[in-house]
Amino acid sequence: MKILAVCGMGFGSSLMLKMTADRVLKKLGVKADVEACDIGTAGGMQADLILTNAEFAKQLAGGQAPVAAILNMASEDEVEKALKENLDL
């Protein structure tokens, strides 16, 4: 399973979101590859789910992977909810 954590430049909020997703996946016992990247790169990558902020979620919607908008990148509860709603967990 591949999950993208997306922000504007690929090394700010996406890294925080990646770390949060990694913690949640570990807690759930799910093995997945979570990669932080910028929005330009994300559009051309294969993924099972894209996690990002609300603004980028609008831009990435309608692509090959479901997109979940995360308001608080450090919220494990919010990320867990998004993972469970968009993946078979």
From TrEMBL:
Signal peptide: none annotated. Residues 1-89 form the PTS EIIB type-2 domain. The keyword Transferase applies. Keywords: Transferase. One of its GO terms (biological process) is phosphoenolpyruvate-dependent sugar phosphotransferase system. InterPro entries: PTS_EIIB-like_sf, PTS_EIIB_2, PTS_EIIB_2/3. It holds the Pfam family PTS_IIB. It comes from the Bacteria. GO terms for molecular function: protein-N(PI)-phosphohistidine-sugar phosphotransferase activity. This is PTS system IIB component (L-Asc family). It comes from Pseudogracilibacillus auburnensis.
